[in-house]
UniProtKB/TrEMBL annotation:
Membrane-spanning ranges: 12-34, 77-98, 119-138, 228-249
Topology of this chain in the membrane: Multi-pass membrane protein
Gene Ontology CC terms, in alphabetical order: mitochondrial membrane
Protein's name in the database: Peroxisomal adenine nucleotide transporter 1
Family: Belongs to the mitochondrial carrier (TC 2.A.29) family.
Keyword tags: Membrane, Mitochondrion, Repeat, Transmembrane, Transmembrane helix, Transport
Keyword hit for Transmembrane: yes
Swiss-Prot/TrEMBL Solcar repeat ranges: 11-101, 119-213, 225-332
UniProt subcellular location: Mitochondrion membrane
Alphabetized InterPro entries for the sequence: MCP, MCP_dom_sf, MCP_transmembrane, Mito/Peroxisomal_Carrier
GO MF annotation list: ADP transmembrane transporter activity
Pfam families xref list: Mito_carr (PF00153)
PANTHER family from the UniProt entry: MITOCHONDRIAL THIAMINE PYROPHOSPHATE CARRIER 1-RELATED, PEROXISOMAL MEMBRANE PROTEIN PMP34-RELATED
Amino acid sequence: MPAQSKPVQQLTPFGAALAGALGGCFSTAVVYPLDVAKTRIQALPADSKGKGKDLSMTSVLLRVYKQEGIAGLYRGFGATMLNTFSMQYAYFFFYSLVRSSYIKRLTSKLPPGSKLPPLSTAAELLLGALAGALAQIFTIPVSVIATRQQVGRPEGSKKASSDEKVDDSFMGVAREIVEEEGVTGLWLGIKPGLVLTVNPAITYGAFERVKSLVLLAKGNTSTKLGPWLTFVIGALSKTLATIVTYPYIMAKVRIQARSADIEDALEHNEKPPPAHKYHHKNGKHVGALDILARVWKREGFTGWYQGMEAQITKAVLSQALLFMSKEQFEHWALAIMIFAARISSRRTI
């Protein structure tokens, strides 16, 4: 056991980030159709009477399959994989860097030979939030593009542009966002995104805390858990984080979706803004608090949790897969780094 855990402990922040990114892509790819379904459920507003279509995950998956085929279940797959890799890489990199720096600082203040106690839950949350905020700032443009690809175009937009050639490629969607929202449109949802940095902070903070308690109760000197125990702890941690932050998760998706400006225009009895032209000459893009207030007015408190079942199902499965596979991907990341170092050393000879 010590022989297996030693290489993983030697991972640099770069290696930990690579392992986290690879694991994140793997877990997201496995459950990707569920990701498309939950995004569409979150982005679909109810009508003025608070009523809407059947929004269960199964019905949405079947509807997408009937209308768009298998391709519809994998809309935006490339952008989502890029977003997942960049977000997970950035998060694990900053988290490993910040956490290791913080631990070194604490260790330097201890008497020689003293053992550092486990970090407090508050410390884990703060470190995770800081890492998440840094990751969000650098990666959210890809998230905006991926969300628009997954959700597709509003019904009215499809009819209006039936005679026009629609470009839903990664660069096509990026150009459309810049035309309609300006360059800052690529950072739509950054404010709720920064608030949502508490989500992975709660997840990883709770996971590390429960993990340390379980290992302490077992009296085991190892730092590893079995795969099934890891699955359960990861699922519980992610569920807790999702319940706490869900209203802002839903609001962020609606801000980033194409339908946000159309809904805002209808709310104020105005004409829907034209495609490929700037939308905010006389105002600004709707914000998270505006969306939450509108949903509360139409649907009440339960409207804030529309699609939470789909979010938890997808998030728990994805996060549990990530936790279960993370240590294996750490070994692979270490192997990749050793292989790259050997190639680099041969070139310098």
